[in-house]
Amino acid sequence: MTPPRGRAKPPAHLADLDEAGRKKLLEDSGLPGFRAKQLSHHYFGRLVRDAESMTDLPAGQRDELVATLLPTLLTPVRTLEADRGTTRKTLWRLFDGSLVESVLMRYPDRATICVSSQAGCGMACPFCATGQNGLQRNMSTAEIVDQVVDGARAMASGEVPGGPGRLSNVVFMGMGEPLANYKAVIGAVRRLTDPSPAGLGLSARGVTVSTVGLVPRIRQLTEEGIPVTLALSLHAPDDELRNELVPINTRSSVDETVEAAWQYAATTKRRVSIEYAMMRGINDQAWRADLLADVLRAHGDWGWVHVNLIPLNPTPGSKWTASDPADEREFVRRLEAKGIPTTVRDTRGREIDGACGQLAAAE
């Protein structure tokens, strides 16, 4: 899943570096290293990146300091709004022209941003708009973090209806397979959870990392010691169907994948979310609900897991479409009858091409 050789990397940014690395980058550029902490405070604490507002920096060095540690990584191309402005989807252009998306969603009790970790995706799931277009490249740690900082700034400044507020949750469920870009994603998680000014100071419990089931990486994440929520995009309880819907399943079976997720829960004491996109006539049969419950219960006490059913947000011209509401209700009933906690995801942003990758594909 590595990007093509010879492709230029995005410029170094303070979010790519720890505190010592930020200081060294300034010093290597002939600038005073102690200014790194001030720049970090502006970026992570005040959520600003424009030199004019950093009045505690010397006027003669301000622009150079910002250019060195806070280069522009994301340029907004389009922003679409839904739900009376409380859902905002932004299409970003990266330094090399790659396109990615993020979605900021404000609820009465929280604000969540869904971020991308790759430009495109190499997992080739046939019902996914991003997967249909393949992988362009991995994103850097700072490119990932910058999406979150922009969302936090929009909340703090009152741009989102409801008045000034705080970003509380980050979900790695945008474009890309997060665990296929493992190093950058873990770096981003650390920046998001490091206390200010080293990072954004979010709770690890407010961060969710999604995966289609890269078993070796799930095991690696288990040993990281960062209690983020793991979300496993399962979409089918049997290997025959999951091989079709999630091609990576041919490397690790449903049982092996669920076992790795269960081990994550057992080690971190964090309940795993099983993501299941409901597709009409494909994976929404009542018997598959029973099988899903049996698969999850086979890996230990059912309390380790929670099923999150997702009404599919279909892409234009696709044969994949959302389940009939009656079939969805029966699926929920069967899971709950076997003691599996189940919810149906609140669908937001359908009118703004809410499924990840749709906006980038249209552009």
Automatic annotation (TrEMBL):
Free-text remark on how the cofactor is bound: Binds 1 [4Fe-4S] cluster. The cluster is coordinated with 3 cysteines and an exchangeable S-adenosyl-L-methionine.
Record: active site: E101 (proton acceptor), C356 (s-methylcysteine intermediate)
Keyword Cell membrane: no
InterPro entries from the UniProt entry: Aldolase_TIM (IPR013785), Elp3/MiaA/NifB-like_rSAM (IPR006638), Methyltransferase_A (IPR040072), RNA_MTrfase_RlmN (IPR027492), rRNA_lsu_MTrfase_RlmN/Cfr (IPR004383), rSAM (IPR007197), rSAM_sf (IPR058240)
GO biological process terms, semicolon-separated: methylation
Compartments (UniProt record): Cytoplasm
Catalytic activity: adenosine(37) in tRNA + 2 reduced [2Fe-2S]-[ferredoxin] + 2 S-adenosyl-L-methionine = 2-methyladenosine(37) in tRNA + 5'-deoxyadenosine + L-methionine + 2 oxidized [2Fe-2S]-[ferredoxin] + S-adenosyl-L-homocysteine; adenosine(2503) in 23S rRNA + 2 reduced [2Fe-2S]-[ferredoxin] + 2 S-adenosyl-L-methionine = 2-methyladenosine(2503) in 23S rRNA + 5'-deoxyadenosine + L-methionine + 2 oxidized [2Fe-2S]-[ferredoxin] + S-adenosyl-L-homocysteine
Note: Reaction proceeds by a ping-pong mechanism involving intermediate methylation of a conserved cysteine residue.
Stated role: Specifically methylates position 2 of adenine 2503 in 23S rRNA and position 2 of adenine 37 in tRNAs.
Protein name (Swiss-Prot/TrEMBL): Probable dual-specificity RNA methyltransferase RlmN
Protein source organism: Nocardioides imazamoxiresistens
Gene: rlmN
